[in-house]
Structures are given as structure tokens and as C-alpha cells.
Amino acid sequence: MRVAIVENTKVTHHGQVGVALHEAAARIGLYKPWADGQLPDPADYDALVVFGGEQHARADDSHPYLPELARRMRAFSGADRAVLGICLGSQLLARGFGAENRIGTAPEFGWCSVELTPEGAADPVLGCLPERFISFQWHSDTFTLPEGALHLARSAGAMQQAFRLGRATYATQFHFEAHRGVVADWARGFPAVMEGMSPGWLDRHPQEAARVGVEADRNGLMLARAFVARI
Asked: What's the confidence (pLDDT) of residue 182?
């Protein structure tokens, strides 16, 4: 199994996705286009995973590789390669399939409740989760659904939480890869940004991690394993 991973920022944790790929003995091709502009070719891989970043999905001036990454995600999907876009990755996938990116319209932060749609409950990947589940959120933007996409999940903060196109092209706005260790590292690395998203959250973090972190970790690993099984 050959999997291309695209990182969109200097600090990118693969988290539960990395655990599931390791369990499957996947061979990883790592790309950091924010540094060198290099992107994977669908002919070289069985799957593509695109993680998040601080930029928005239309930040072409500061990150000129974004339009091509959106096109490349669609190309992987068209070649029947499994695709997973998380947070910014989901927004870029929506862009690649002609949907609208809505910048700054849907701020959401912390461990939040997400609800499966009926299509999500029946989905071969997201259907492994409870109808309502906890996952970590950290975003300000959202998007419309691409034409032909199945709407799989929603939340109070952002209606478009997950969608699927075709056999195995998946987008999740929520950070299911972010287990408690990832969130703790983000808290150490970006305290001012987190406080800006949710004042007082750093003080609440230990209690929230103890209250919902185990459940969120379990949900994230189940979802990561289910996606890897579709590759």
C-alpha cells in the first residue's frame, strides 16, 4: 500500500491516521508543498491524505500551490485512488470539485459533538461511528457540498462536516486524527491562537480532555482504520 501524505504547515501531526497507516504497513510518500511546491502523482500511489493548515483554501497569493493541490485531489479521485481531506484538506477537496469556499463564516473550536446524517450512518467508513460522536474542531471556514457528494455529517457550528464522492473520496472538517497527545502539543505550541478561538479554553483543556478525550480518541482511531480499509 502506497500512500501520499500532503502537509500544509510546519507542524502537522498524522495522529490516528498515522497509527492506522502504520498498522497497515503502508509505505508513505511525504510532501510539504508549502516549502517546495512539490505534489504527488496519482500514478505513484494508492491513496492521498491531505491534512490541515493555518491558511484558508483560497489563499493562493501566500500559498500558490493550492489550486494545483485541489486539482490533484480531484485527479486522485478520478483515478479511483482513495482520498482523504481533513479540515483544510476537506475545503480543498470541495474546491477541487467546484464547490464554494466560505471564508471566516463558521468558527468552531474544541471537542465538539458531530452528528451523522442517514447517509453517514450507512456509509462504509463513517458508519463505524455512533450517530453522535465527539471529535476535535479547529476551523473558521466552511464550504458548500460539491455536486454529487453524499452529505455524511453535520454539527451545530458547521453544517458541512463530512462528505463522500464516489467509492472512497472522503472529506472531514473535524480533526478526527487529533488524539489527546496531538491536542496537548497544539496547546503548547499555539496557546495565543487557541485563546483567540475560545477564551479560557487552555484553562479548561485538562478537564475537557479527561471528560471526552478517551471517547474522541476511540472515535478517531475507528474512523482512521475504516478509511485505510477502503484503500
From this structure: 97
